[in-house]
C-alpha cells in the first residue's frame, strides 16, 4: 500500500505517515480528536465530551468483535528536538445492528485531526480499512453522515460510495435539526 502524501506540518519530521492497528497508546489522541468533533461539529450526535476510559472501552469492544481500527501517525519533532509519534486520525468499522442477519454489514467511521485534513490521510485510512473489511468477508459497509457536513458527503461520494438514503431531522445539535445521509459500498 502506498502511504505517501503531502502531510508536512510545522513541527513534523519529513517522514511519510504510518498506518497501523490502533492500540491503547492511541487512546489519548483518539479522545482528543473525538472530543474536538463533539465540541465543534454536527458530525457526532453527542453533546458532552467523553473520557479516555470511554474510548478504551470502545476500542476493546471493536477488538473483541474482530472489527478493524486503523490509525495514521506521524513523526513529530518537539521544540527540544526530540522526535515522537503522534496519532492524527483513525478509521474503524463496527457492528451495524445486533441481529445476526446483519453480521456481514458494518458501519464505518473516519476522523482526522483538524490540522491535518485535506492532505489525503482520510483516503489512505479508508483504503486500508475497506481492504481489511474485504479480507474479513464483510459484504457491505455503511457510512452515516450528517447532511450538513458537506465536506464529508463529498469525501464519500468521491470514493465511490453511493447514497443509500436520507433520514430527515433525526438529530438535534447546535439549535438545529439535522439530517443523516447513508452512504454505502458493496464489497
UniProtKB/TrEMBL annotation:
Superkingdom classification of source: Eukaryota
Pfam families according to UniProt: Acetyltransf_1
GO molecular function (one): acyltransferase activity, transferring groups other than amino-acyl groups
Alphabetically ordered keywords of this record: Acyltransferase, Transferase
SUPFAM superfamilies: Acyl-CoA N-acyltransferases (Nat)
Residue ranges of domain N-acetyltransferase in the record: 17-184
Protein name: N-acetyltransferase domain-containing protein
Organism classification: Eukaryota, Fungi, Dikarya, Basidiomycota, Agaricomycotina
Amino acid at each position: 500500500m502506498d502511504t505517501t502524501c503531502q502531510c508536512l506540518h510545522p513541527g513534523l519530521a519529513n517522514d511519510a505517515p504510518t498506518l497501523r492497528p490502533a492500540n491503547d497508546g492511541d487512546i489519548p489522541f483518539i479522545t482528543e480528536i473525538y472530543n474536538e468533533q463533539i465540541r465543534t461539529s454536527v458530525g457526532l450526535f453527542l453533546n458532552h465530551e467523553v473520557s479516555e476510559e470511554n474510548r478504551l472501552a470502545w476500542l476493546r469492544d471493536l477488538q473483541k468483535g474482530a472489527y478493524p481500527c486503523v490509525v495514521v501517525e506521524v513523526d513529530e519533532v518537539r521544540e527540544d528536538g526530540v522526535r515522537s509519534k503522534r496519532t492524527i486520525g483513525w478509521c474503524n468499522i463496527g457492528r451495524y445492528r445486533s441481529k445476526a442477519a446483519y453480521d456481514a454489514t458494518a458501519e464505518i467511521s473516519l476522523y482526522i485531526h483538524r490540522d491535518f485534513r485535506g492532505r489525503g490521510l482520510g483516503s489512505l485510512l479508508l483504503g486500508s480499512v475497506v481492504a481489511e473489511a474485504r479480507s474479513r468477508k464483510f459484504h457491505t459497509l455503511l457510512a452515516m453522515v450528517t447532511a450538513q457536513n458537506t465536506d464529508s458527503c463529498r469525501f464519500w461520494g468521491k470514493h465511490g460510495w453511493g447514497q443509500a438514503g436520507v433520514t430527515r431531522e433525526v438529530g438535534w445539535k447546535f439549535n438545529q435539526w439535522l439530517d443523516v445521509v447513508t452512504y454505502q459500498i458493496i464489497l
